[in-house]
Amino acid sequence: MNVSASATKVDREHSWTGNTKDWALSRYGAALAAVHAHGEETDLAKEIAVSLLTHWSIETGAGAGEFNYNVGNINVGSGAQNIKYFTVTDVDGTTHAERAFDSLTDGVEAYIALLNSSRYAAAAKKLADEPDQADWFVTLGKSGWFDPTKAKPASTWEAAAAAYAARRALLAQTVFGQ
User: Fold this and answer.
1) Residue range of the domain that includes 36
2) Share in percent of the chain as helix, strand, coil (round to 5)
3) Of 109, 114, 177, which Cα lies nearest the Cα of 143?
Protein backbone atom coordinates (compact mmCIF):
# COMPACT_ATOMS: atom_id res chain seq x y z
CA MET A 1 0.00 0.00 0.00
CA ASN A 2 1.69 3.18 -1.21
CA VAL A 3 0.04 6.33 0.15
CA SER A 4 1.75 9.72 0.13
CA ALA A 5 2.43 11.59 3.35
CA SER A 6 0.00 14.35 2.29
CA ALA A 7 -2.93 11.90 2.16
CA THR A 8 -5.30 11.75 5.13
CA LYS A 9 -6.59 8.46 6.45
CA VAL A 10 -10.26 8.56 7.48
CA ASP A 11 -12.63 6.04 8.98
CA ARG A 12 -14.41 3.79 6.55
CA GLU A 13 -18.10 4.71 6.70
CA HIS A 14 -21.07 3.43 4.75
CA SER A 15 -22.36 6.14 2.44
CA TRP A 16 -25.72 4.46 1.97
CA THR A 17 -28.21 2.93 4.33
CA GLY A 18 -31.56 1.86 3.05
CA ASN A 19 -33.00 -0.46 0.47
CA THR A 20 -31.38 -1.48 -2.78
CA LYS A 21 -34.03 0.10 -5.02
CA ASP A 22 -33.59 3.52 -3.42
CA TRP A 23 -29.80 3.16 -3.66
CA ALA A 24 -30.11 2.35 -7.37
CA LEU A 25 -32.44 5.29 -8.05
CA SER A 26 -30.26 7.78 -6.17
CA ARG A 27 -27.06 6.59 -7.85
CA TYR A 28 -28.73 6.54 -11.27
CA GLY A 29 -29.75 10.17 -10.69
CA ALA A 30 -26.18 11.07 -9.77
CA ALA A 31 -24.81 9.23 -12.80
CA LEU A 32 -27.29 10.91 -15.14
CA ALA A 33 -26.47 14.34 -13.73
CA ALA A 34 -22.75 13.68 -14.27
CA VAL A 35 -23.31 12.47 -17.85
CA HIS A 36 -25.38 15.58 -18.56
CA ALA A 37 -22.69 17.79 -16.99
CA HIS A 38 -20.17 16.27 -19.38
CA GLY A 39 -22.22 17.30 -22.40
CA GLU A 40 -24.42 14.30 -23.22
CA GLU A 41 -28.07 15.40 -23.23
CA THR A 42 -29.72 12.81 -25.48
CA ASP A 43 -31.48 9.55 -24.61
CA LEU A 44 -28.02 8.02 -24.89
CA ALA A 45 -27.24 9.73 -21.57
CA LYS A 46 -29.82 7.54 -19.83
CA GLU A 47 -28.24 4.39 -21.24
CA ILE A 48 -24.76 5.53 -20.21
CA ALA A 49 -26.04 6.30 -16.71
CA VAL A 50 -27.57 2.81 -16.37
CA SER A 51 -24.27 1.29 -17.45
CA LEU A 52 -22.34 3.34 -14.88
CA LEU A 53 -24.87 2.32 -12.24
CA THR A 54 -24.39 -1.32 -13.23
CA HIS A 55 -20.64 -1.09 -12.72
CA TRP A 56 -21.12 0.60 -9.35
CA SER A 57 -23.65 -2.04 -8.33
CA ILE A 58 -21.17 -4.80 -9.10
CA GLU A 59 -18.33 -2.98 -7.34
CA THR A 60 -20.30 -2.18 -4.18
CA GLY A 61 -22.72 -5.07 -3.85
CA ALA A 62 -25.64 -2.83 -4.82
CA GLY A 63 -24.58 -0.21 -2.29
CA ALA A 64 -24.00 -2.52 0.68
CA GLY A 65 -20.24 -2.07 0.27
CA GLU A 66 -20.21 1.58 -0.79
CA PHE A 67 -18.01 3.49 1.62
CA ASN A 68 -17.22 7.21 1.77
CA TYR A 69 -19.08 7.82 -1.51
CA ASN A 70 -16.56 5.74 -3.47
CA VAL A 71 -19.06 4.40 -6.00
CA GLY A 72 -16.51 2.50 -8.07
CA ASN A 73 -14.07 1.30 -5.41
CA ILE A 74 -11.38 3.64 -6.72
CA ASN A 75 -8.00 2.78 -5.28
CA VAL A 76 -5.48 5.38 -4.23
CA GLY A 77 -2.97 5.77 -7.03
CA SER A 78 0.70 5.77 -6.20
CA GLY A 79 1.86 9.25 -5.31
CA ALA A 80 -1.67 10.66 -4.97
CA GLN A 81 -1.46 13.97 -3.12
CA ASN A 82 -3.86 15.70 -0.73
CA ILE A 83 -6.60 13.11 -0.78
CA LYS A 84 -8.60 11.25 1.81
CA TYR A 85 -8.50 7.47 1.95
CA PHE A 86 -9.56 4.45 3.98
CA THR A 87 -8.18 0.93 4.01
CA VAL A 88 -9.92 -2.29 3.07
CA THR A 89 -8.94 -5.92 3.07
CA ASP A 90 -9.81 -7.55 -0.23
CA VAL A 91 -11.20 -11.05 -0.66
CA ASP A 92 -7.70 -12.27 -1.50
CA GLY A 93 -6.43 -11.05 1.89
CA THR A 94 -4.47 -8.04 0.64
CA THR A 95 -4.98 -4.65 2.27
CA HIS A 96 -5.14 -1.58 0.08
CA ALA A 97 -6.17 2.05 0.22
CA GLU A 98 -9.31 3.35 -1.44
CA ARG A 99 -10.30 6.95 -2.05
CA ALA A 100 -12.73 8.62 0.34
CA PHE A 101 -15.01 11.43 -0.80
CA ASP A 102 -17.06 14.00 1.09
CA SER A 103 -20.13 13.72 -1.12
CA LEU A 104 -21.78 11.58 -3.75
CA THR A 105 -21.09 14.28 -6.33
CA ASP A 106 -17.37 14.23 -5.50
CA GLY A 107 -17.24 10.44 -5.74
CA VAL A 108 -19.06 10.36 -9.06
CA GLU A 109 -16.88 13.12 -10.54
CA ALA A 110 -13.70 11.27 -9.50
CA TYR A 111 -15.07 8.09 -11.07
CA ILE A 112 -15.89 9.92 -14.33
CA ALA A 113 -12.44 11.55 -14.38
CA LEU A 114 -10.73 8.20 -13.88
CA LEU A 115 -12.91 6.55 -16.53
CA ASN A 116 -11.89 9.31 -18.95
CA SER A 117 -8.18 8.95 -18.17
CA SER A 118 -5.85 7.54 -20.79
CA ARG A 119 -5.71 4.15 -19.05
CA TYR A 120 -9.46 3.60 -19.44
CA ALA A 121 -10.08 5.69 -22.58
CA ALA A 122 -10.91 2.64 -24.73
CA ALA A 123 -13.58 1.56 -22.24
CA ALA A 124 -15.01 5.09 -22.08
CA LYS A 125 -15.21 5.20 -25.88
CA LYS A 126 -17.04 1.87 -26.01
CA LEU A 127 -19.38 3.08 -23.28
CA ALA A 128 -20.18 6.24 -25.25
CA ASP A 129 -20.67 4.32 -28.51
CA GLU A 130 -22.69 1.34 -27.24
CA PRO A 131 -23.73 1.87 -23.63
CA ASP A 132 -26.20 -1.02 -23.64
CA GLN A 133 -23.48 -3.57 -24.41
CA ALA A 134 -21.09 -5.32 -21.99
CA ASP A 135 -18.04 -4.69 -24.20
CA TRP A 136 -17.14 -1.49 -22.36
CA PHE A 137 -17.21 -3.33 -19.03
CA VAL A 138 -14.88 -6.08 -20.28
CA THR A 139 -12.57 -3.45 -21.78
CA LEU A 140 -12.58 -1.63 -18.44
CA GLY A 141 -11.52 -4.83 -16.71
CA LYS A 142 -8.85 -5.68 -19.24
CA SER A 143 -7.48 -2.15 -18.82
CA GLY A 144 -6.83 -2.94 -15.18
CA TRP A 145 -9.97 -2.14 -13.18
CA PHE A 146 -10.65 -5.80 -12.39
CA ASP A 147 -9.67 -9.28 -13.54
CA PRO A 148 -12.16 -12.13 -13.06
CA THR A 149 -9.48 -14.69 -13.86
CA LYS A 150 -7.66 -13.72 -10.63
CA ALA A 151 -10.77 -13.83 -8.44
CA LYS A 152 -11.32 -16.56 -5.91
CA PRO A 153 -12.87 -18.66 -7.29
CA ALA A 154 -11.53 -17.74 -10.71
CA SER A 155 -13.99 -16.78 -13.41
CA THR A 156 -13.82 -15.83 -17.08
CA TRP A 157 -14.26 -12.66 -19.10
CA GLU A 158 -17.32 -14.23 -20.73
CA ALA A 159 -18.88 -14.89 -17.32
CA ALA A 160 -18.10 -11.30 -16.26
CA ALA A 161 -19.82 -9.98 -19.39
CA ALA A 162 -22.85 -12.21 -18.80
CA ALA A 163 -23.11 -11.16 -15.14
CA TYR A 164 -22.85 -7.52 -16.18
CA ALA A 165 -25.58 -7.91 -18.81
CA ALA A 166 -27.93 -9.62 -16.35
CA ARG A 167 -27.37 -6.99 -13.66
CA ARG A 168 -27.82 -4.19 -16.20
CA ALA A 169 -31.15 -5.62 -17.34
CA LEU A 170 -32.42 -5.69 -13.74
CA LEU A 171 -31.23 -2.17 -13.03
CA ALA A 172 -32.75 -0.84 -16.25
CA GLN A 173 -36.09 -2.24 -15.10
CA THR A 174 -35.62 -0.53 -11.75
CA VAL A 175 -34.75 2.92 -13.07
CA PHE A 176 -36.99 2.93 -16.13
CA GLY A 177 -39.90 1.19 -14.40
CA GLN A 178 -40.34 -1.40 -17.14
Assistant:
1) 8-176
2) 50, 10, 40
3) 114
Number of domains forming the structure of the chain: 1
The pLDDT tens digits for 70-83 are 999 999 986 677 89
Domain membership flag for residue 1: no
- Beta partners for 60? none
Q: What are phi and psi of 173, to 5 degrees?
A: -60, -40
Q: Is 3 among the domain residues?
A: no
Is the separation of the CB atoms in 129 and 105 below 8 Å? no
Q: What pLDDT shows up at residue 130?
A: 95
Whether residue 59 contacts residue 72, with contact meaning beta carbons closer than 8 Å, is answered with yes
The least confident of 33-42, 66-75, 104-113, 132-141 is 33-42
pLDDT tens readout for residues 107-136? 999 999 999 999 999 999 999 999 999 999
Q: Which CATH number is 156's domain given? A: 1.10.530
Rounded mean pLDDT of 140-162?
92
Nearest CA-CA partner of 141 in 123, 154, 167: 123
pLDDT tens-digit profile of 2-30? 777 788 999 999 999 999 999 999 999 99
86 forms beta bridges with 98
- Characterize 73-85 residue by residue with b for buried, 16 or more Cβ atoms within 10 angstroms of its Cβ, and e for exposed: bbbbbeebeebeb
